[in-house]
Structure prediction request, 76 residues.
Amino acid sequence: MKAFDAIQLTSGWEVSKYPADIPDHYIPDSSGLDFIPAVVPGAVQYDLISAGKLENPYRSTKAAFDSSWVAKSDWL
Prediction:
């Protein structure tokens, strides 16, 4: 039996909001999307907080309500 090299999948990930104007079953042109670094496994909310694009939703009730769009969005 031949041994295989392990492939590390823990770095190099990015995430971007799926464009609202493109139907769900199409793959958008990624060159125009705003990608931010992502951690896998993880959550988009944590990636957005790390990138300074979202206030920590646990900080206040207002921050929690202001972050509700994240769960309602689709992500690549």
Helices lie at 44-50, 61-66, 68-72.
